[in-house]
Batch of 2 targets.
Target 1
Amino acid sequence: MRPMSDPTDLAPDPALFDKVVNLAKRRGFAFQSADIYGGFRSTYDYGPLGVLMLRNVKNAWWRSMVQMRDDVVGLDAAILSPPAIWAASGHLTTFSDPLVDCRNCKERLRADQIGDTCPNCGADNLPDSVKCVQCARPLGQSCPKCKVPLAIDARFCPNCGEVLKKTCAKCGTVAEAGTKFCPNCGTGL
């Protein structure tokens, strides 16, 4: 390791990540998944010491966020849910969390939790346009067939299967929604 003469010297060591990974392997904290087969990008398996460390971190979080509070209870539920649950809760057809960006302090706020002024800076010049929390697209962009709100890079509607299209502003060519450039003139879509 190189000596750090000045605490403000934050220039990263290019080999630091490799050094940390090798130390974690040698000490039994973590190993890259499928390491002997070339590895599996961005995934790691915990070794004997890593499992203990992970358990200690989880227990400390559980103690401070659940056990030491009177207003929180623990719940362990499935991460994956059948589509019927999402439909029954309204998430597939009506759910939206519109956002407003304050022009003064640039803070992004939920539109349903603010009035006419920004709670951060007090500015009263909030824009009229609101954006979806999940994808930051302006509201009103939804499937032309079934009107379900869509993700930012949606190529088809997950609800009805409609293939989405974009129209080039320069030449009017219609292309699939996932296309970044017009196939006719090369203009960015």
Target 2
Amino acid sequence: MLFFIAVNLGYTQNIRPASNIGNNEYPQVTPDLRIVFSVNAPHAQKVQINLGKMYDLSRDEKGVWTGTTEPQDPGFHYYSLIIDSIAVADPASDSFFGTGKMSSGIEIPEKGVDKPAGDPFPAGWPSGRHWVDNGKKRPHR
């Protein structure tokens, strides 16, 4: 059901961004920078993703809604779930305040940009997080 074209981003399969909460598998980022969403909302009549553009999700017989976006530009993106015309944060992802309200967020990796050696965060970690590189004793982002 998932279709993607492999590009050299340092991974050949979908990645689970670090902004996902706990063991949630979705959203995922494909090697060609599309975002795959899966939302369990069995009683909903319509589920969409607002990522600056609206994406309609498709419902299966169990009430799980899935969909894949177009390729996204690298960087941090805010998004919201729209369930029956009501905007909500994705319960599977961390929420961030940066659009005048709490929104979900996802980091799209940049092609050809490697993480610094000793980077304590996995691919897809929101770029606004800071840490100290113990070798250089200075904050990084």
